Amino acid sequence: MTKKQGILVIADGLGDRPIKSLGDKTPLEYSNTPNMNFMLQKSMVGNVHPVAPGFTVGTDVGHLEIFGCDSKTVYPGRGPIEAISAGFDIQKGDVAFRGNFATIDDNEIVIDRRAGRINENTTELASAINNMTLDDGTKVFVVNLTEHRVAVILRNTNLSKELEGTDPGTACEGSRLVEPYSLDNSEAAKKTAKNLWEFTKKSCEILKNHPYNQARVSQGKHPANVILTRGAGMNKSIPNIAEKFKINAACIAGDITIGGIAKLVGFKYFIKDSFTGGYDTAIEEKGKLALKLINEGYDFVIVHVKATDLSGHDNLPLKKVEIIEKIDSMLGYLVENTDEEKCYITMTSDHSTPCELREHSGEPVPTFIYGSDVRRDNILQSGESFYVRGQLNNLTSRDIFQIQMNLMGFVKKTGA
Amino acid sequence: MTKKQGILVIADGLGDRPIKSLGDKTPLEYSNTPNMNFMLQKSMVGNVHPVAPGFTVGTDVGHLEIFGCDSKTVYPGRGPIEAISAGFDIQKGDVAFRGNFATIDDNEIVIDRRAGRINENTTELASAINNMTLDDGTKVFVVNLTEHRVAVILRNTNLSKELEGTDPGTACEGSRLVEPYSLDNSEAAKKTAKNLWEFTKKSCEILKNHPYNQARVSQGKHPANVILTRGAGMNKSIPNIAEKFKINAACIAGDITIGGIAKLVGFKYFIKDSFTGGYDTAIEEKGKLALKLINEGYDFVIVHVKATDLSGHDNLPLKKVEIIEKIDSMLGYLVENTDEEKCYITMTSDHSTPCELREHSGEPVPTFIYGSDVRRDNILQSGESFYVRGQLNNLTSRDIFQIQMNLMGFVKKTGA
Fold first, then answer.
1. Average pLDDT over all residues of chain A
2. Residue A332 gets which letter from DSSP?
3. Which residues of A lie inside 8 Å of B (Cβ-Cβ)?
4. Are A25 and A324 in contact (CB under 8 A)?
5. CA B88 vs CA A274, B79, B96: distances in Å
6. Measuring CA to CA, which residue among B246, B234, B328, B297 is closest to residue B68?
7. Cα A87 to Cα A79: distance, rounded to the nearest angstrom
């Protein structure tokens, strides 16, 4: 079987709805996308369901599906995803939480869920409360991630993920720290909840007295005097997709959660300081690195851009248009510098984030696969309402992964 | 998440095939539907499979799917649906049948499957044979429904639904009463068959001598001297969809089976004397009640019209057109009196009932979802052949439920 290469561009949260201020067009329909339009002449297109029609997914579930996994079977919850992203080796039976360094007052009221978006000395603060042994022998690990984010892992036999963590929630600054409780009344969950509370109390003591926090207080900053925890999960076995398809794959992303998921499925992760999860991310440079990796012989190179999603959450349609146009330029660069007979280029997304909704929604995501020999749809404009008529319409993100692998020559025949 | 409201109009049996006398148009294509055509400017459209391509369903299965249930897992058979519709509390292990009051002669030949469409004193007749205890201790309950219809419930341990009832079938007037038999040769089914036969014999004795039946005979009417049974089923747990999605939902229908299914999934059921399952049903009034319920704050209001299905069964294409045009007027009233930014309006059906076939068929059903912010399909005429090009085409009724819930803001994100 002849093998070809593929580049997959993921515009996070790209899908949208008609927006009044854009003349009832979606940001993608409104954008000036000469390179996409050029590519559409030799593309299969469609709006694609992240999982199934009308189901809303998070970035993590959306990417597991884009990378070819059945999230219903393998998604372990966000806690383990974060821990693994940070390089922590989750073991069977571990319960992992995503967490924040936060600030509480003397009455355990959460006054800042992100401790002033703390960005310094979090390694030292995490290490001060890492490796704790609780009264019943449970070990607790704390791994710092970007900014105020951490992962917290409890290790013992007979723990459970069926519990509520200490975080009172996004909309609940001003609420008291939640004393963890079992969600299913099982002994395992009760024990886990008790352990998480013991860890929280003990870590508060240590953090309160930590010199870095005392320095923050004297500088008038919010101290990182508590860890809020949420998103309990236990690891399931996520398949190594790279091994399964025998592909040599690379993922370029500024968002380390995406990088963590890519590593989980066996893809090599590439990040640079200029690749951020923000509006400022160096989109053009990501394209250049993708080309370099293709030229180095990677079979499949993924480029992830988070900023489309941010502009949805921030309800900034014109910002979304601006990011889409930058992605279009990067696509133009890739088309110009690769051979359409040897390398497919796909654009898709993990979910829709309609600006007016400011949240993820269940609509399918605009998708096309470009290459000299794909069956063509003769849809020559880019946008959700045009893509509807394409051959990929109403398929799923996992289908799109499989279709790319098929085109590239990495799908083994079933039967004879 | 911002919540919106939704109205769902179900035109039972709406889907059809090209009909010669309508110039090879379907009734929906032939109808004058200015309000639908107006709505289509801001709609997602498609022909939608009740369950899967080419599968023909009954009204009960079709509605379970429209209400978001997986009928393959939860459908208990028609017997239990009828019993539950009548308010009977089905317990685990009960076997329920749908039944008819019918007329047999002295040789047990069924001479009228509906006992002259008996419509009087059925409460008294049912009550005369209700609460019977059979030789092995099995209890039998008989609940009268509309006209000649009843539900029969057998209660004991170790019963089975794998049996044929006493009804020789629609096309078999002139045949003998069927002695019930096991379909799987199990002891439980044999026992249930024996019980059903004992009940049938004993109830015939009671009915034959009942004063109301003797009066019917003296008036030259067919006596209700037997109960024909069919559609054996046992209850499974039908999910409470209202609780699952945390929606406050209402269903307006003249057909009490639809009302029963709505109640089963946790929707409140509204009926009035003028809401019938017939051609005479007050469609305009149903629309007015729907608007009232929306204004009272229900999240989701369903309006069911049976008459489109009847006209299919009766092979009356122009009658179907007339009903569709009345539904169109009701849609116009709803559009005029609701806010398109706050309330979606969906039209769909439970299955196709092509006039020339006079029966349900497996074709997908015409469907659209209207609202200010849905992705538009720019399909501006109403009818099966136009809807094919829409974004909802080839999805399923359950998908359409999920998509409505997603638009209305009642779908929780999976993942983070």
1. 95
2. H
3. 17-18, 24, 26, 47, 51-62, 71, 75, 78, 98, 231, 354, 356-357, 359-364, 384-385, 388-389, 393-394
4. no
5. 67, 11, 10
6. B246
7. 13
C-alpha distances (whole Å) from B416 to each of A57, A76, A266, B180 are 7, 11, 21, 55
Supply B270's token pair: 């509204």
One DSSP character per residue, B258-272 reads: HHHHHHHTT-EEE--
Among the partner residues B374, B389, B414, nearest to A61 by beta-carbon distance: B414
A109 closest CA partner among A64, A60, A176, A53 = A176
Interchain CB distance below 8 Å, A61 and B415 = yes
Residue A154's identity, in one-letter code, is: L
CA distances (Å), origin A81, targets A114, A208, A233, A241, B165: 20, 28, 9, 16, 55
Is pLDDT above 70 for B1? Answer: no
Residues facing A98 on adjacent strands: A151, A230
Rounded to whole angstroms, the Cα distance separating A60 from A260 reads 10
Interface test with A, best of B42, B375, B393, B394 (most A CBs within 10 A): B375
Q: Do A54 and B411 touch (CB under 8 A)?
A: yes
Q: How confident is the model at residue B416 (pLDDT cuts 50, 70, 90)?
A: confident
| 3-state class (DSSP) for residue B154 | strand
Nearest to A110 by CA among A18, A36, A187, A174: A174
Q: Are B230 and B200 in contact (CB under 8 A)?
A: no
Taking 90 as the threshold, does the pLDDT of residue B85 lie above it? no
Structure tokens at A29: 């329909």
Please report the pLDDT score of residue A211 as a whole number. 95
**Cα separation, A166 vs B75, whole angstroms:** 41
Q: Which residue has the tokens 């603060």?
A: A125
The tokens for B280 are: 């005479």
Amino acid B236 reads: K
Question: Looking at beta carbons, which residues of chain A come within 8 Å of B373?
Answer: 17-18, 354, 356
Name residues whose C-beta falls within 8 Å of residue B62's C-beta, 6 or more positions apart in sequence. Answer: B50, B349, B350, B351, B397
d(CA A294, CA A35): 20
- pLDDT attached to residue A163: 94
B404 and A57: CB-CB below 8 Å? no
CA–CA min distance B45, chain A (Å): 11
Those residues with Cβ within 8 angstroms of residue A87's Cβ, 6 or more apart along the chain or in another chain:
A143
Instruction: Return the residue of A nearest to B404 by Cα.
Output: A54
Pairing of strands A95-104, A226-233: antiparallel
From A60, A389, A394, residue closest to B415, measured CB to CB: A60
> Is the CB of residue A112 less than 8 Å from the CB of residue A104?
no
State how far residue B34 is from chain A, nearest Cα, in angstroms: 23
A359: closest chain B residue by CA:
B1
Q: Helix, strand, coil % (nearest 5) of chain B?
A: 35, 20, 45
pLDDT tens string B288-299: 999 999 999 999
Q: Which residue has 């399923």 as its token pair?
A: B396
Look at residue A402 in the predicted model and tell me its pLDDT. 98
- Of A57, A361, A363, which is closest to B414 when you measure between CB atoms? A57
Region A305-317: what's the mean pLDDT? 96
Q: Quick count: other Cβ atoms within 10 Å of Cβ B291?
A: 19
Backbone angles phi, psi at A296, to 5 degrees: -80, -10
DSSP A83-122: HHHTT----TT-EEEEEEEEEE-TT-BEEETTTTT--SSH
